[in-house]
Amino acid sequence: MKAFFKNNQNIQSTEKEEGILSPTKLGWRRFKRDKVGMIGALMVIMLICCALFGNYFSPYDPLEMIYKDSFQGPSEKHMMGTDRFGRDELSRVIVGSETTMIICFGAVAIATILGTIIGLISGYFGGKIDGVIMRLLDVVFAFPTILLALAAVAAFGPSLLNLLLIIGVIYSARIARIVRGSVLSVKEKDFIEGVRSIGARDRTIMFKFILPNVLSPIIVQATFNLSHAIMTEAGLSFLGLGTQPPRPSWGGMLNESREFMELAPWLAIFPGLAIVFAVLAFNFLGDALRDALDPRLSQR
Amino acid sequence: MEQKENGRTILKVSGLKNYFFTSEGVIKAVDGVDFEIKKGEVLGVVGESGCGKSVTALSILRLVASPPGRILDGRIEFMGRDLRTLSDDEIRKIRGKMISMIFQDPLTCLNPVLRIGYQISEVFRFHKGFDRLKSLGESIRMLRSTEIPSAEERVKNYPHEMSGGMRQRSMIAMALACEPALLIADEPSTALDVTVQAQVLKLMKELCRERETAILLITHDMGVVARMCQRVAVMYAGRVVEYTDVHTLFSRPAHPYAEALLRSLPRLGTKRNRLDSIEGQPPQLNRLPPGCAFEPRCQYSSERCREQAPELKRLREGHEVRCYYPINGGER
Questions:
Q1: What pLDDT shows up at residue A18?
Q2: Helix (H), strand (E) counts: chain A
Q3: Hey, are the CB atoms on B61 and A191 less than 8 Å from each other?
Q4: Is the dihedral of CA A91, A102, A274, A289 positive or negative?
């Protein structure tokens, strides 16, 4: 690896030095050359740090109310001002990332696992099974995501776990579609007939031989799903059906700020910026991953 | 080439029919194929593209996608069992263990995102239940037996990092991993260049002789047939038209198609400007003529050939032919 950093410009020579390159390594190499992608990755790391350690480095307790300090504009003491209860906005934005990250990563993890399994089964077996699964997914696609999520949250109640599951299940439809499409093309390849000819069972073929071939679209879609899930979560919280107070969440903070938009615009601006930051971060990362993992899209 | 006369018959295919039901009608890809293979024997199946060679091979292992393909009739008797009647689970245990297959293009037949060692290991894990480490060790041993240098390094390679010859050797290693009784090789050397072709074929033959594995060798290369096989089945339009041993085929072919096929080969020592070719095109398999399928291109055809298709008939001991007017040694 040391040799690689030295010869960053000269790929020819590094290839000789490193010898055999796995597809993962090739993808990583392409990713490292993508500046926007690296910025996105840094932003994501920042978000994760905020979520994990926000409680330790936020300047104030995000839940502590100091009424005499309410509606203070951004100042040295409170860099993002304070809300109507005198809570420090910066601390709330930092700690609010925790909620967002839990829901996004949790929901996307559920979506990815569930969607991959559904997509594999649907694409691999085809026929009636495929037809039934695809029509069910069409039902999910027929409704706008936020509307469906809203209805589900209203039905099951707004708890953190429910949010995770609901967003996860809804987003699994997208993954399932993409996986199915890729599986359809991979399963026709000769090497699948090859493993069948050495006596592999369907389950083995699906998970050991087809799955590694469809991994890159899954990773890319999962990354984009992260940014979409952030928006869905924020939207639900904004409508009051997401994370419940007093737990700070960006969407909820936006909602609270609505009444005081003229009096204290910073209360709307900073959580809004935080959402933009997080969505951008995952989109940058997703774009870079797509370019790195699918060289057909951009020959670089 | 010694011929094992009294070897045990391990595979007997009789009256095999595999049709494809498509929107353009029924395609009779395999329409009554009969042959048998004895232990350790090499049977060649020759014929031009699209004559049903590959479908025959895939049908034996029940690997033809269904739909559209369907095995309509016939028996595939392998070591006393009819493969057609086995359950999916039973046939799966035969694939790779008792009968394995080598395909034409080793690049497309190896999974591009998995290491070679892993792919070979899978055979041991399916059929012998070895753990990861043991099956990897066995894979290295198999690779070494196919004369791949530094096999313990090569198992870490991905298929794209190997040469065509090495890939085909890996395929052979995978196919012979469980010492199967029968190896089906579907044009194993077509995608390789001539020198590598010779090496790979030689290797395949040697490894199979050591293990007493019979080979069903599908090819359209008469040179390969002459070098590898003991018996040959010549196929045309989904049927076996001539079935005999390799010497008889080359010295006294009986079917007009086999004879024309041999005449179209270049020969050392003769001076010819143009090679003979067989006039016309092979028939479309969804629109076969009612009579002999080769009749439109046959120079010996008669009214009888046009009306009714001939059966595969015994000409002499170990020589069967599907023709009313066999050439050498027939009545003509």
A1: 46
A2: 13, 0
A3: no
A4: positive
Are A198 and B96 within 8 A, CB to CB? yes
> Does residue A84 contact residue A115 with C-beta atoms inside 8 Å?
no
A188 vs A247: which has the higher pLDDT: A188
Query: Which class is domain B9-107+181-229?
Result: alpha beta
Q: What is the ipTM of this complex?
A: 0.76
Q: What is the pLDDT of residue A190?
A: 86
For residue B210, give how far its alpha carbon lies from the nearest alpha carbon of chain A (Å).
21
Q: How far is B192 from chain A (nearest CA, A)?
A: 17
Nearest CA in chain A to B92: A199
Q: Exposed (0-12), middle (13-18) or buried (19+): which is B280, by Cβ within 10 Å?
A: exposed
Q: Which residues contact B20 (CB under 8 A, 6 or more apart)?
A: B26, B27, B29, B68, B69, B70
Residue B2's CB is within 10 A of a number of other CB atoms, namely: 5
The DSSP secondary-structure symbol of A73 reads: P
- Determine the Cα–Cα distance for residues B165 and B87; give it in Å rounded to an integer: 36
Q: Chain B interface, mutation test: which of A124, A125, A197, A209, most B Cβ atoms within 10 Å?
A: A197
For residue range B266-304, what is the model confidence (pLDDT) as tens digits? 777 777 677 778 877 888 877 788 888 888 888 887 888
pTM: 0.78
Interface test with B, best of A22, A125, A191 (most B CBs within 10 A): A191
Reported as a pLDDT band with limits 50, 70 and 90, residue A133 is very high
* Range scoring the smallest mean pLDDT among A205-209, B6-10, B23-27: B6-10
pLDDT tops 90 at residue A108 = yes
**Using an 8 Å Cβ cutoff, are A227 and A278 in contact?**
yes
Contacts for B46 with CB less than 8 Å, ≥ 6 apart: B53, B219, B220, B222, B225, B232, B233, B234, B235, B261
Give me the residues of B, 15-44, that contact A with CB < 8 A: none
Judged by CB atoms closer than 8 Å, whether chains meet at A198 and B174 is answered as yes
Task: Count interface pairs A-B at CB distance under 8 A.
Answer: 75
Do the chains contact at B126 and A200, CB–CB below 8 Å?
Answer: yes
Least CA distance to A212: which residue of chain B? B113
Q: Pairing relation of β-strands B42-46 and B231-236? A: parallel
Q: Domain A89-295 sits in which CATH superfamily? A: MetI-like (1.10.3720.10)
| Residue A22: Cβ within 10 Å count | 14
Chain A interface includes B124 (CB < 8 A): no
Q: Name the residue facing A198 among B105, B126, B156 (closest C-beta).
A: B126
Residues of chain A with C-beta less than 8 angstroms from the C-beta of B96: 197-200
pLDDT at A110 (0 to 100): 95
Question: How many other CB atoms are found less than 10 A from the CB of residue B7?
Answer: 14
Model pLDDT for residues A134-163, shown as the tens digit of each residue: 999 999 899 888 889 889 988 998 888 888
- The shortest CB-CB distance from A194 to any of B103, B113, B157 is to B103
